[in-house]
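Last lecture ended with a question: if I hand you only a sequence, what can you say about the shape of the protein? Today we answer it with a concrete record. The protein is 3-oxoacyl-ACP reductase FabG. Below, first the input exactly as provided, then the predicted structure, then a couple of comments.
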Amino acid sequence: MRLKDKIAIVTGGSRGIGQSVSELFAREGATVIILDLLPQGQVVSDEINAKGGKAESHTISVTDKLAIENLFAQVNKKYGKIDILINNAGITRDRTLEKMSVEEWDAVIEVNLKGVFLCTQAAIPYMKANKYGRIVSAASNVGLRGNFGQTNYAATKAGVIAMAKTWTLELGKYGITANAVAPGFTMTDMVKQIPEEHFAAIKESIPLKTVAEPIDIAFGYLYLASDEARFVSGICLTIDGGTSR
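The predicted structure:
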């Protein structure tokens, strides 16, 4: 087991890529702490426990600084450490630049960027005390190449990559790595809603001529969270079938 006895916090861990990460980490021996605003998180944790894994779920917003700090303190008190933080929670509010409202801009910045900042800031004291930590944050290939109608989303994902590189410099001496994962189109609920004619064009634009499944992305998270990647820090692992070549 690649994550045996590790304590892993996964934000947005109740569906899509986050659910696959939660389930995969549990199969690899981690105790998974799912953070999500959706009640589905409890269902995922119950299923993990029923299969012999270890998981718990908490309904919480990554934008609530006090709640995050209190929960991370509780997790550390209960388990004696926090080994892994997966910053996966994120939202979209797509609109072209001229039509995007300040509210749509702020909402995406608040969750996708500030939420990553708050969760990582809360985890760091416990990782430093243990001289060990793995921080992996959800970027996107949109953060590398932009995308029509996603000024807010692209800005947050580019920011996540920059934060990982910065944290590498600040935290490396404490045995903490910081990396990002940049998925391309992945078969989440959001992608499944794309009209078939548009979806066909998307697949054709990908060199591998197919769309990722959530587990494809989860395996990237697993590598960066494992001890196999102990000397990997400050990178953005792009998993998009060759789109961002």
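Comments.
1. Residues 7-185+214-238 form a domain with the Rossmann fold fold (CATH 3.40.50.720).
2. The longest strand covers residues 176-183.
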